[in-house]
Amino acid sequence: MSHSVSVVYLHLVFSTKDRQPHIVSTWQNELYAYIGGIIKNLQSQPIIINGTTDHIHILCTLPREMDIATFMRNMKASSSKWVHQHHNPHFAWQEGYGAFSVGLSNLEQVKGYIRNQAKHHDKQGFVEEYNAMLRAFGLVPYGEKE
């Protein structure tokens, strides 16, 4: 085989600094579109991007020649700079992120979950949601001991 092929689907989750409600509805979709452009420029494919005022969910592919940490660092830095320039000079993302693998058979389920973020957060806050995701992947949620 003369070339490499890779398709890795990721569900990415990250919040604003201190989970402050800094993502304002008047420019939220503009931010999502901008992040989609960043993802494409990083040689990845955005599938769906959505969130709330304090965090964001992204379903995308991982670039073939980039590790997750570099991908996330580039995406968060570029999007933070854009928000500073266009909407809020004090905006920042929280350090860290969640990156969860998604199988092809679960893509539609994850897309639906991301699409319905507002509905999910009528019943559950970000920390509860994130801890449930950690548990689903066999990881220990924040504040809990193994």
Describe the structure.
The chain is α+β, with helices and mostly antiparallel strands and 146 residues long. The protein has a single domain (9-136), classed as Transposase IS200-like (Alpha-Beta Plaits), CATH 3.30.70.1290. The chain contains five helices and four strands. It has helices at 28-41, 68-86, 107-115, 117-120, 126-136, and strands spanning 9-15, 46-51, 55-61, 98-102. It has a four-stranded antiparallel sheet, sandwiched between helices. Helix 1 (28-41) crosses helix 2.
Describe the secondary structure blueprint for this structure:
Blueprint: E1 9-15, H1 28-41, E2 46-51, E3 55-61, H2 68-86, E4 98-102, H3 107-115, H4 117-120, H5 126-136
Antiparallel strand pairs: 1-3, 1-4, 2-3
Tell me briefly what this model is.
The protein has 146 residues and is of the alpha+beta class.
The CATH architecture designation is: 2-Layer Sandwich
Strand content: 15-25%
> What is the class in the CATH system?
Alpha Beta
Rg of Cα set: 15 Å
In N-to-C order, the SSE pattern is EHEEHEHHH
Number of strands: 4
Helix run count: 5
Which segments are poorly predicted (pLDDT under 50) over 5 or more consecutive residues? none
The percent range for helix content is 25-40%
